[in-house]
Amino acid sequence: xxxxxxxxxxxxxxxxxxxxxxxxxxxEYHTHFKGQGMTFSDFREYVPGDDIRTISWPLTAxxxxxxxxxxxxxxxxxxxxxxxxxxxxxxxxxxxFKGEIIIYLSALLAYAAERNKDQVGLVLFSDxxxxxxxxxxxxxxxxxxxxxxxxxxxxxxxxxxSSCAQFLQGFLKKRATIFLMSDFLDQDYDQSLRxxxxxxxxxxxxxxxxxxxxxxxxxxxxLQDPETGEILLxxxxxxxxxxKVRKANFYSSEQKEKNLKKAQIAKVAISTHDDYVQxxxxxxxxxxx
Length: 289
Description:
This protein is of the alpha/beta class and 289 residues long. The protein folds into 2 domains: 4-33 and 75-288, Rossmann fold; 38-73, no CATH class. 44% of the residues lie in helices and 23% in strands. The protein contains 8 helices and 10 strands. It has helices at residues 4-33, 57-63, 98-115, 139-151, 161-171, 190-199, 239-263, 277-288, and strands spanning 38-45, 67-73, 78-84, 119-125, 129-136, 177-182, 201-208, 220-224, 231-235, 266-271. The longest helix has 30 residues, at 4-33. The protein is globular and about 75 Å long. The mean pLDDT is 88.
């Protein structure tokens, strides 16, 4: 049985999200994805005015005549919400933890997809794929996804983005758009994401909290690693400690940027202290240009 408070929260998030989608988000989503899903249909002989980028050079070389590829628009797009549920998402110094921001983002994208008549699937991952709901349509399907986002308890705390990427690469037969939502506190995932992005559109939604970059001076405190459980006693007033934090954050941020560039995927940066909708809107607007 699902607790009443979870059902109540699902309904509340649904109401808030639908309002946001109807008032702000749906137009940008629709414009971005309109005509994005194109599948190969056939070859035909080139006629003046055709786009030369569609010329099939191998077929042209074999036949001695110029042929182009023709495509047809897919009526149904597939959206995959790949959600990090590792221990590090249970952190935040704003109104919401990183994991809560991810839930709101997932709801926003799911209901925008529903309005656009697209099918949506959900993957919850830590260092394993913890839970998977195949892409489908319908209000009941979206409510189930939202319930699982709120209610599901992962078995593992660590993060391994490559495990999610490899799973999706094996499962998805048709082209999909994958929103990968994580704090990306991981390593060695660039190659698996690059392979995934060869067939699918992958968007990295990077969720961060300002306190991860600059720990405030709180004196002597205990810090716990949410993924390993390790507890450290640290003096946050120490100049040496603050310098170590700055260096570690610089290295971590630099590695994220390098990995995402190597993977050749788009990035949307989202802070737990700021509006989470605006960065997505700006991303869709940039893609239109």
